[in-house]
Amino acid sequence: MKQLALDFATPPLPTLENFVAGRNGELLASLKRLAARQAQERFLYIWGRPGSGRSHLLKGAVAELQRAGAAVVFVACAAGIRLDDGLERMDCVALDDVDRLDGAGQIAAFDLYNGLRERNGALLAAGAAPPVQLALREDLVTRLAWGLVYQVHALTDEEKARALADYATGRGFRLLPDVSEYLLTRANRDLASLVATLDALDRYSLETKRPVTVPLARELLQAASRRDA
Questions:
Q1: What's the confidence (pLDDT) of residue 189?
Q2: CA-CA distance, 211 to 159, in Å (whole number)?
Q3: 47 with 142, same domain?
Q4: Mean pLDDT, to the nearest integer, of 163-192?
Q5: 143-152: b (≥16 Cβ within 10 Å) or e
Q6: Which range of residues forms the domain containing residue 85?
């Protein structure tokens, strides 16, 4: 098998346009209004399980704001991280994994929230649970709950299968249901990884001049597994 097929494509950069909404239509619409500077509420907290797409949504909103010329920054929170001075002067700050902040980080995030509100800035934050369930300072939890709060609902297998089928159609081939089912049970289950696997499968199909079938998918994934072992 050629190395090209085994080099799974890097997933496309997250945008609001390439996020598959599923049951998150209202949330996606709110982020698009905020990115277009048309939102009445400028503070938004989203939560969901790992792989639900919350980081994708924050990065997508940041990218759209940047294209519009806004001063915006994405921050991946973690224990020990120091929030830069002057963030309160940004048009928007996105704090991902806010539940990972340590004590000093929580104080800085609280001050940032107040600073952005005073200057008409916007704050997007994401975490693994709704605000009331976060093990954070009470004053920061209160601030996070003041704005809009949305749960990010992970795609069901049926929604992922439809998204993969649509993606395959866009690349010019038909993805059979049994191939989708095989990928959903054998490959990494987040949509970005599934799309990258589908890209590699399409390339392997073209290289070998064989249709995209379960045996072809099995061959590709087994070869990739041997390579990574």
A1: 82
A2: 24
A3: yes
A4: 91
A5: bbeebbbbbb
A6: 25-151
